[in-house]
């Protein structure tokens, strides 16, 4: 019982970060957004985008492991061509991973599904992308909302505000302000998607 009480106390503590650290600002806002979608709106997170990144990384590590084992059993002069091939493969796959993260993932930190518990309506899907440039205070959050199984009934809502609106002077996240803006763009995206139907 004490461990569950401890967990609730930790999650209900206000988030405090270094307000001059851009990555910390973005990560705190992203985490608060995930928390809102998972706990309040009951979305289930879809990890397929992150899983693909892990699979690509696993393949590059397997090339490294193969080179290590081959070199162990066949010392250097014999293993030269295998080592060259594995090192080249590792860097090619690292390039593929960079391409994937830059152009396919592209700042997406949450993909979630909301399944109707009654089974009458088709599920809803949200993709959330955030961007915050290094020396900029404008936080860009793009919410792509898909209503049902038809991808043509999609809607996009954008939140562009200064991070100063969501953090106080001490670097504590003003969760309620941020959630109010999230709720507005979520409702806007949902109503636009229903108009398309």
Automatic annotation (TrEMBL):
<feature type="transmembrane region" description="Helical">
    <location>
        <begin position="54"/>
        <end position="73"/>
    </location>
</feature>
<dbReference type="GO" id="GO:0045047">
    <property type="term" value="P:protein targeting to ER"/>
</dbReference>
<feature type="transmembrane region" description="Helical">
    <location>
        <begin position="79"/>
        <end position="100"/>
    </location>
</feature>
<comment type="function">
    <text>Component of the signal peptidase complex (SPC) which catalyzes the cleavage of N-terminal signal sequences from nascent proteins as they are translocated into the lumen of the endoplasmic reticulum. Enhances the enzymatic activity of SPC and facilitates the interactions between different components of the translocation site.</text>
</comment>
<comment type="similarity">
    <text>Belongs to the SPCS2 family.</text>
</comment>
<keyword id="KW-1133">Transmembrane helix</keyword>
<dbReference type="GO" id="GO:0008233">
    <property type="term" value="F:peptidase activity"/>
</dbReference>
<dbReference type="GO" id="GO:0006465">
    <property type="term" value="P:signal peptide processing"/>
</dbReference>
<keyword id="KW-0812">Transmembrane</keyword>
<dbReference type="InterPro" id="IPR009582">
    <property type="entry name" value="Spc2/SPCS2"/>
</dbReference>
<keyword id="KW-0256">Endoplasmic reticulum</keyword>
<dbReference type="GO" id="GO:0005787">
    <property type="term" value="C:signal peptidase complex"/>
</dbReference>
<dbReference type="Pfam" id="PF06703">
    <property type="entry name" value="SPC25"/>
</dbReference>
<keyword id="KW-0472">Membrane</keyword>
<protein>
    <recommendedName>
        <fullName>Signal peptidase complex subunit 2</fullName>
    </recommendedName>
</protein>
């Amino acid at each position: 019982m004490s461990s569950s009480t401890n967990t609730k106390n930790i999650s209900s503590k206000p988030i405090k970060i270094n307000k001059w650290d851009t990555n910390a600002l973005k990560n705190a806002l992203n985490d608060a957004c995930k928390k809102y979608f998972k706990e309040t709106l009951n979305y289930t997170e879809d990890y397929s985008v992150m899983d693909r990144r892990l699979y690509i990384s696993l393949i590059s590590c397997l090339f490294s492991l193969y080179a290590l084992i081959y070199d162990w059993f066949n010392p250097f002069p014999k293993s030269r061509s295998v080592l060259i091939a594995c090192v080249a493969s590792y860097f090619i796959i690292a390039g593929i991973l960079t391409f994937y993260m830059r152009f396919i993932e592209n700042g997406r930190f949450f993909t979630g599904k909301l399944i109707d518990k009654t089974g009458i309506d088709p599920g809803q899907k949200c993709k959330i992308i955030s961007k915050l440039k290094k020396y900029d205070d404008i936080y860009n959050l793009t919410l792509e909302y898909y209503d049902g199984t038809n991808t043509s009934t999609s809607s996009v809502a954008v939140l562009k505000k200064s991070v100063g609106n969501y953090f106080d002077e001490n670097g504590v996240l003003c969760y309620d302000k941020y959630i109010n803006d999230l709720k507005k763009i979520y409702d806007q995206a949902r109503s636009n998607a229903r108009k398309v139907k």
